[in-house]
Amino acid sequence: MSRKLTEDTPIGKALIDWWTDLENDKRGRAELRRASSVFEALMCPSFQRLQRRLVAISPEMFSSGHQLDRLAMACALLSHVRGASNLSVPQAMSARTKGAERNPVSELRFKRLLESPDDEALFTGLRRALPLIDQTVDVLSLASAVLWWGHEVKRAWAYEYDWI
């Protein structure tokens, strides 16, 4: 399975549909937004609906274990995303507005994200960074990065972030 979700893959389409439907599910969005940990996100009905849908698509990936925690994290983070863009997460974090002298997410904060010691630290760091990029990012870029977080994603993010 590819480590990059796109709208033309069944998982990517399901995630986009779920995120779009979340706009009309005010309670579900609010519950996920209030989740202060991955464990709290696991207990949200809106996450569980998506999980059941994804199990039907890819049971080997979404039935149990670490990937479910990552999916819960992605759902909680996506509940904070208000607008979709074509910018990946590191591109959005380093996309300066006209006349700005600094990136929306500082180099130091970005480095700390890349050095997150565990999923909870990554979750907290990303949740705090989303308001800095106006809660606008490529939805599938964020979900892909969280689902497959590791050395390859960190390296790709380091290349995509505009350090200058």
Describe this structure as you would to a colleague.
- By secondary structure, the chain is mainly α.
- It has a single domain, classed as CRISPR-associated protein Cse2 (Peroxidase, domain 1, Orthogonal Bundle), CATH 1.10.520.
- The protein has eleven helices and two strands.
- It has helices spanning 10-22, 26-34, 38-42, 45-57, 59-62, 66-78, 89-94, 107-114, 119-129, 139-147, 151-160; strands spanning 83-84, 136-137.
- The chain has a two-stranded parallel ribbon with strand order 1-2.
- Helix 1 runs antiparallel to helix 4 and helix 6 (66-78) packs parallel to helix 9 (119-129).
- The longest helix has 13 residues, at 10-22.
Count of discrete alpha- or pi-helical segments spanning 4 or more residues: 11
CATH architectural grouping? Orthogonal Bundle
Pattern of helices and strands: HHHHHHEHHHEHH
So, the CATH homologous superfamily? CRISPR-associated protein Cse2
Helix content: 55-70%
Number of strands: 2
The top level CATH class name: Mainly Alpha
Poorly predicted parts? none
Mean pLDDT: 94
Strand content: under 5%
Which fold name is given in CATH as the topology?
Peroxidase, domain 1
Strand order of the largest sheet: 1-2
Kindly, what is the distance between the CA atoms of the first and last residues, rounded to a whole number of angstroms? Answer: 34 Å
Rounded Rg = 15 Å
Structural class: mainly alpha
Estimate the global geometry from the Cα principal axes.
Answer: globular
The profile of the biggest β sheet is: 2 strands, parallel
Tally of individual domains: 1
